[in-house]
From TrEMBL:
Domain Oxidoreductase molybdopterin-binding intervals: 34-178
Database matches in Pfam families: Oxidored_molyb
Lineage, broadest ranks: Bacteria, Bacillati, Actinomycetota, Actinomycetes, Pseudonocardiales
This protein's name: Molybdopterin binding domain-containing oxidoreductase
Sequence segments annotated as region (Disordered): 1-21
Domain of life assignment: Bacteria
InterPro entries: OxRdtase_Mopterin-bd_dom, OxRdtase_Mopterin-bd_sf
Length: 198
């Protein structure tokens, strides 16, 4: 008689420094709410619209001319996988906000393909968020959000919108795609804020 059930693969990797309910993965799962947009680098633009309606726009060439950083961060998906020590290259959101006159408290992130998510502005500044265009030394592939995605590693990864094209700043919070479908408005993995009411 076997003491191991057929098909049992053992426990998933876990680590004491993971948020509650998460397991460690070494691959990079691809999860998307719809088809993958294919945006050419030369066609990509990023626009921040402040609460007064003023717009500031950067092209791909503008992005590459800005000072870049290479954050190495842990990322945590609401579907319970975590990937540690991921390496990126991109531009801090602080750099973009230097050009924007705003006192807004909230942002709606907009992506090519129609995806949206919402964040407090305070979670996008002070070295907490980047627009990234390289992952592990290579250009960011479309399935992972290329040419450019938002990276907000201290929140669940659905807040790090793929194919990012802009931020709309507001004094009022407006839920994004997953938030209107029952996901938590904030999404702190250390507090397991997966769904509304968590």
């Amino acid at each position: 008689m076997s003491i191991v059930t057929r098909g049992f693969r053992g426990r998933r990797d876990s680590a004491p420094d993971l948020p509650p309910g998460q397991y460690l993965t070494r691959d990079f799962p691809v999860l998307s709410a719809g088809p993958t947009p294919r945006i050419k680098q030369d066609d990509w633009q990023f626009t921040i619209t402040n609460e007064a309606g003023d717009k500031h726009t950067w092209t791909w060439r503008d992005l590459l001319a800005l000072p870049s950083e290479q954050p190495t961060v842990d990322i945590h998906c609401v579907t319970k996988w975590s990937k540690l020590q991921t390496s990126w290259q991109g531009v801090s959101l602080d750099t973009f906000f230097e050009a924007v006159d705003t006192g807004a408290d909230y942002a709606v992130v907009r992506s090519y393909g129609g995806y949206t998510t919402n964040l407090p502005v305070e979670d996008l500044v002070d070295g907490k968020a980047w627009l990234v265009y390289r992952y592990e030394g290579d250009d960011l592939h479309p399935e992972h959000g290329g040419p450019v995605r938002l990276l907000v590693p201290h929140l669940y990864f659905w807040k790090s919108a793929k194919w990012v094209k802009g931020l709309e700043l507001s004094d009022d919070e407006q839920p994004g795609f997953w938030e209107t479908l029952g996901y938590h408005n904030y999404g702190d993995p250390w507090r397991e804020q997966r769904y509304s009411g968590d």
